[in-house]
Amino acid sequence: MKHHPKTKTHFLPKRTAIIIVALLAAVGLMSFELTGKHDSGKIIVVKDSVGSVAAFRQVYKVLMSPRCMNCHPAGDIPLQGDDNHLHTMSPRRGPDGTGMYAMKCSNCHQPANTPGLHTPPGNPKWHLPPADMKMVFQGRTPHELAKQIMDPDRNGHKSMDQLIAHASDTLVTGAWHPGAGRTLPPMSYKAFKKAWITWLTKGAYAPPGK
Amino acid sequence: MISLNINQKDYQVDADPDMPLLWAIRDLAGLTGTKFGCGVAQCGACVVHLNGEAVRSCVTKVSRAAGQKIVTIEGLSQNNDHRLQIAWNEANVPQCGYCHSGQIMSAAVLLRENPNPTDEDIDMAMSGNICRCGTYLRIRKAIHLAAEMQRKESSSR
Amino acid sequence: MSAQNISRRNFIRSSGLAGAALYLGFYLPAAAKESQIVSGNAAENGGIELNAWIRIGADGKVTLTDHRAEMGQGSYQSVPQIIAEELEVNMADVNIIFGQGSQTKYGSQITGGSSTISSSYKKLLQLSATARQMLITAAAAKWAVPASECYAESGSVIHKPSGKKFHYGELVADASKLEPPKDVVLKKRSEYKIIGKPMHRRDTPLKTNGTAIFGIDKRVDGMLFATVERNPRLRGKVKSFDDTGARKVPGVKHVFKVQMPVFNTIREGVAVVATSTWAALKGRRALKIEWDDTGFEHVNTPDIYKKHEELLKTQEGLSLSKQGDPDAVLNGASKKIDVIYQTPYEAHAAMEPLNCAAWYQVDKIEVWGPIQAPDWVQGDLAKQYKLKPEQVTVNMTFLGGGFGRKAFLDYPAEAVIISKEINAPVLVVWTREDDITQGPFRAGMSYRFEGAIENDGIAAIKVRAAGQNIEHWNGPDRGKPNDSISEGFLKPYLKNIKNVSIADVPYEMPVPNMWWRSVYASTNGFAYESFMDEMAHAAGADPLEFRRKYLQGDESCQALIDKLEEVSGWKSREPNGGYGVSITECFGSNVGQVVKVSKSDSRRLNIDHVWAVMDCGWYVNPDIIRAQVEGSIVMALGAATTHEITFKDGMVEQKNFYAYKMPRINDIPPIEVHIMENTSDATGVGEPGLPPFSAALTNAIFDLTGKRIRKLPFDLGAVV
Questions:
Q1: What's this model's pTM, rounded to 2 decimal places?
Q2: Rounded to an integer, what distance in angstroms lies between the CA atom of residue B10 and that of residue B68?
Q3: Which CATH number describes the domain made up of B83-156?
Q4: DSSP 8-state code for residue C54
Q5: CA C564, CA C562: separation in Å to the nearest integer?
Q6: CB C258 within 8 A of CB C269
Q7: Cβ contacts (< 8 Å) between B136 and chain C: which residues?
Q8: Looking at chain C, which subunits does it touch, using at least 3 CB pairs closer than 8 Å as the criterion?
Q9: Given Cys at both, which of A84, B45, B53, C409 links B102, Cβ 3.0 to 4.6 Å?
Q10: Does residue C609 share a domain with residue C480?
Q11: Chain B: residue nearest A101 by CA?
């Protein structure tokens, strides 16, 4: 069984995971939009609750789209389709998120999309979040989801760096290449990534509410 | 030419790299025990073991399987005496029989990973295999029987 | 689906071909009226080809023929199990082969109507007892002892006083020269050693190691693989096609237009023939086809049911049966029920998609395939190609399910057309999408039931059914009512209910129909037995007692109800505890089922248990019967809750299992099957377990929730 890395990034306070670095120059702005990093390599967070919440509202639309939510289900069976129905074959998450017994994700989900309609979409590391870190999206309010993503105990122990990097994960980018007949997330990947980084670097504020 | 190792035997097959493993096994290697049911990984009739995992050969490209260890129903045992095969006979599981190559190959992975499966474990492992004749209750019974045989064998060792 | 009853018109013949073996079978001469037994010599002199259910070689090897298709229902085991009993051989010692298609050899071979055992067992018992008697006579003659001192056991004849023994193989040369005896004594049921026992099926080992050969597994030297893109609107034409891309696919050898008969219509498509199934499929994907879909109606499912309802509101229909004056009683009744039940179109979706191998060679044709009616295929092809039946060889393989679809003639016909075009043997493989979308389908039905309640009982029932008539695909007579619209409804009800009328409201639609396991009973059962439940409720009666009352005078129904009550604990159930009952008749067998449902915390309706009682009279293998009832219930569960075929603009909307969803292992409730013991003749087994289930389920849901479900399929998860 694989174990999820439980490394905690040492310089991060547990709850907020924010480092504030003064914005020294405008030169880094272009790359900053897509990386969240200043040219110096450091993450620059400029607290702006209004801007951050507005960005998260965009992020939320994507995360709750079937391409993301279907693998972040409330239960242990992934979802399928634009109506988020339970996966027809009822595969289970399993301890490490890669399925159980004869129903492991990669038994059907190949390294790349299988051509044709209603065929398994593919990715070399197709899996659900593991059982000890379920990272549920289904049913979460914007407030809950934002809080959850920023909580290392519930986000897979991800640091700010890792959260930003996660936007480039092939499982995330795969949402925009979902295979024939599947709807895309409601905005371009570029727009999503920008919103994601904007949300994080403006302070990762959770929208108000429950 | 693609080199396939099926049931510990090497086959050189003249296949497109994108040919599903199913058709390479059936039409090129000539092993017809693995069945075509749906072509889109819905029914499990085509399950074979690829490095021990119960892959759906109808969506697994032959290129993924090249040089890997493939086991089909014909290679599960020498004399039709894998405990699942014995249990299938004992519980009179098959009706038309078409899906059972896949059912047994799926069940074999379950038993390897969980020698003492509950009904729920069996459902988890076998919900990817359709049986139109409706032999599901007997599949469950046979897996329990095979697990029992497995436990007896290991305790008598 | 009437099987021709030929048992009284058969000759038993034996043949001692060169003294090497004893063959025994029936022969059906054209003018035969009475059963008669003819010697093997006479058979040879007459140049008659024997059907040879039984072949005993000089080496003692016994080969028994299964003349019916093995599609899961167990003929491969149960036909030999019958023969082995009277022949006195051990099941473990016999070889079993499939009979080739031949009406003259085997009589009707259509594996349909649950008829394999019920239509064959008496003549098979007679035949095998005759063979045994001939072997005993031969042994007695060799020993010069009275035959009465000899008996047969385990493939040998034994002289009781001396203990001397001949193996059958040592006797066949002599036995084959004997005149088959006219009167043989059949065993009593109490003497059976094989019949009635839950023996393991002989085909199981073949199905656990990949050695069973299904149609799709058939290989012939030089065989090519083909697939056909057929018009998705079932009867449209090919206007034009571009095969440039298809021909570029490595392995693709031929691309051409094919036309195939579907009943009285023609279906067109484009065939791609290649060196592997995959190359053919890849080539097919590269085809560009323009269809001509003019000149016929493009159906839409909502319109079908709207039209049904309109017809049921306005038409009296063609009367199938009428007793008393239900209209008058209904007009004067104070308490009435007037409801509509609806059932969907269904595809057969056997696990083995349709396929057929064929080799057309001008003066002969050979076909191999998963075929339910090999004799029909033989006749059809002989007629089509103007050949004699003996020039057409039809080989049955194992069938990966049939359910009625594989009794249809279109796919073997298409395979022969393709073989003729390419002048080579070919295996034509249908994809799952082809299999589900191309039909023929079970017809979806709508029923209007009106009932009058008086004095806490049924005063009158008026039934009208609207839906396609399968028979209309074979004949032009549109003036007769569909005589299948009351299939499933227990006949004794009609003796106890005074005023009943049943009428067919004709409805025509250009979608081809075919038998689907239990045929109209599969849909009638839901309507009739839901209605009986509604009437019971309206009369304030216990649903099972209510049925008992209207089945009075029928001992077997009463006994069935007793058993059902006993096994399900019916009488001690909690009020509104989620119990439902339904009893139907199908191919001579009565089956009663009780379903128990409950609601779990997760709100999903749960099926806790199914009790089934099957009355099929004389039977061969109780475990096969239990398996058939279990499977029938699972298939009924799917048709009630997980799948239906719908049409949009003339095309089927469900293409594969992601949309035509099958019940899976995690959906299956515990099922308990009980078999009635009685002395009646054998009746059907493969289908009768299906019709009662859906009504038992919805009646249970009504008992628990008060919600009456009148349209199938419904979502178990959505029942509140």
A1: 0.93
A2: 10
A3: 1.10.150.120
A4: E
A5: 6
A6: yes
A7: 634, 663-665, 668
A8: A, B
A9: B45
A10: yes
A11: B110
